[in-house]
Specification:
This protein has nine helices and six strands. Helices cover about 40% and strands about 20% of the residues. Helix 8 crosses helix 9. The protein has a four-stranded mixed beta sheet with strand order 3-4-6-5. The protein is an alpha/beta fold and about 220 residues long. The N and C termini lie far apart (about 45 Å).
């Protein structure tokens, strides 16, 4: 993910108070610095989005993500729910956008981000819109910080631990895995209240169900 030729950077410079353009390719960095030499808005950084320091004050991200590093970029941006990121608008592979926005069948990774970030697809983009065109379509993935998080960031480690434990045996009913903590009656009451099958699997709960399950287990374990 980089500023490339600077077309998006120029558009952002007309709307934002400050734009930081990150580019890895040295030739493109030279081009960008020449193109925006007279700008008081644009700063050009030579570096890798996966390694450069991120802002310490509230910021937004815009970019066309190389398909091969999409998950790495998302991890860099979203793994710290207490960070200052407010929103990210990213062009990604359409299949990735579908996976990240699916309420069910859920992925462990998306569920791990869900308590703090809402994810949606703004539009699908035909492969023909790119030059040279990729082999698959793309989509605009919109990631926004939840105004009211579903969990406190301090609970992230414990919540991810429950997810990891459940998804290690994701083919088994979740109630069987939580039997010691909640008991059969407790699990039956939970699934009835949530409108879920008694033998629901970990990937068939959406993030709201998962947060509720985490709360129940945490309360019972004290």
């Amino acid at each position: 993910m980089g500023a490339g030729s600077g077309r998006l950077t120029a558009l952002l410079a007309n709307r934002a108070a400050q734009v930081t353009a990150i580019e890895l390719d040295h030739a493109l960095v030279t081009h960008l610095r020449r193109a925006f030499a007279g700008s008081s808005v644009v700063s050009v950084i030579a570096g890798d989005i996966l390694r450069v320091g991120l802002p310490s004050s509230p910021y937004r991200v815009f970019g066309n993500v190389p398909f091969a590093i999409t998950t790495s970029v998302l991890r860099r941006l979203l793994d710290d729910p207490s960070g200052p990121l407010q929103r990210a608008d990213l062009i990604v592979q359409a299949e990735v956008a579908e996976k990240r926005t699916a309420a069910r069948r859920s992925s462990q990774l998306s569920l791990g981000w869900g308590p703090w970030w809402s994810v949606s697809t703004a539009r699908r983009i035909s492969r023909a819109a790119f030059a040279p065109p990729p082999t698959v379509d793309a989509a605009m993935l919109v990631i926004e910080r939840r105004r009211v998080p579903l969990l406190d960031p301090a609970e992230r480690s414990a919540y991810l631990g429950e997810l990891h434990s459940a998804f290690r045996s994701s083919s088994q009913p979740l109630g069987r895995q939580l039997r010691r903590a909640v008991g059969q009656r407790g699990w039956k009451r939970f699934t009835d209240e949530r409108g879920l099958p008694f033998d629901v699997r970990p990937f068939d709960l959406d993030v709201f169900d998962w947060v509720a399950a985490f709360r129940m287990v945490s309360d019972l374990r004290g």
